[in-house]
Specification:
Shape: elongated
Distance between the termini: 32 Å
Largest sheet: 9 strands, antiparallel
Structural class: mainly beta
Number of strands: 18
Strand content: 35-45%
Mean pLDDT: 95
Helix content: 10-25%
Order of helices and strands: EEEEEHEEEHEEEEEEHHEEEE
Amino acid sequence: MSACGRLEAQFTVPAGGWTVAVTITAIGGPYNVTVAANTYTPTSFLTALQTSLDAASGSDGAFAVSASFTDRTGTGLVTIAHATETFSATWTSTDMRDLLGFSGSLTPAALTFTGASAMRGAWLPDCEIDTTYGGEAGHYEHDRSELVSPDGTVYALSYATSRRYLPEIRWALISRARARTAAETTPGQSYETWWRDTHGGLYSYFAAAPQVTVYDDSTTSNSIGTFRLTGRVDTSMTKAAAPWHGLWEITAAGYKVP
């Protein structure tokens, strides 16, 4: 069975970083844990948060920050855990809280906390991914023009620069819950929500045309490439088995980031 893949939109943590105050019951605190200002993908942000959590309490190395990215069945929910000690946390930066899918402070103290909503910026489809050229990042477009004279002579002007365009990234049979916001069984899991969050101007930390990494298998770090998606201005999509509303076709296209 082919893999379903994953989409991850890049976002920017602003100057000053994002901070959460963490208290580890048997060690102390609160410790101000800051993820530095930078540009991240959901995956790289989780790694940065785990590193910052471990460093804040003297590098005990016992925190684990992960998301459910299992191919086809992953929920996108984030889990923050400590191997041996209970802990609690208060979000100084609510943008970080919301991005990770948590709705409030992490209390009372516990060994592990899991968010209530899928991590913002990541979308997990539940049917096989299909792209125009398989695992290739697209075809090449050159800055070239041609003129044909009345007698058939061809004159051309061409520059050495080029760009790569992937005409279609396609999921033919996406369940309604992972396609449409109104049908979500886990908040934030649908493509409609993902696109509005990342491309709809709803959150300042996502650029208007964010870089999107297209993974061809959600459980690995292998990707087809990183693209800026083009051509979509709304969340319309096509029913895969009309008039039934249970399955939907979702397509995207874009230019590979140099």
